[in-house]
Amino acid sequence: MGAFVISKRFNDEYKFTFTSRRGKVIFTSLSYELRFECEEDIEKFKKNIELARFLKFKGSGGKYFFKLMLGEVHFATSRKYSTELLLQKGIKEIVTYSSKSEILDFSSSESIFGDEEENEDEAAE
């Protein structure tokens, strides 16, 4: 179904990505200073998907991408696609599944797998 994934950038600002049903990133948001701003914009997007516009571009390297606009505001930028058909499929996935997609928060600095050294010690026993 796809998911919105919140994470941190290297500069400690927050971002979110929309991933496809297969786990591939379709677009990445702009940066946010606070995590709750990501959540608010995701919810706003999910409720107002009909206002979304997709401005399509072809980069100098021949790859295709789009800028996602919500109203007149630049909301996110897609990954690069090798063909225009794949770009269209990415857009279709957003339109079809984003309003029903869950939000996953991986922005915590703590590892979801616990302390790696501790896990290695347990595995050695």
Overview of the molecule:
It is a single chain. It contains three helices and seven strands. The protein has helices spanning 35-47, 84-97, 116-124, and strands spanning 3-8, 14-19, 25-29, 52-58, 64-70, 73-78, 102-105. A seven-stranded mixed β-sheet has the order 4-5-6-3-2-1-7. It has a single domain (3-124), classed as PH-domain like (Roll), CATH 2.30.29. Mean pLDDT is 87; it is low at 121-125. The radius of gyration is 17 Å and the shape is globular. With 125 residues, it is α+β, with helices and mostly antiparallel strands. This is DUF1508 domain-containing protein. InterPro entries: YegP-like_sf. It comes from Flavobacterium chungbukense.
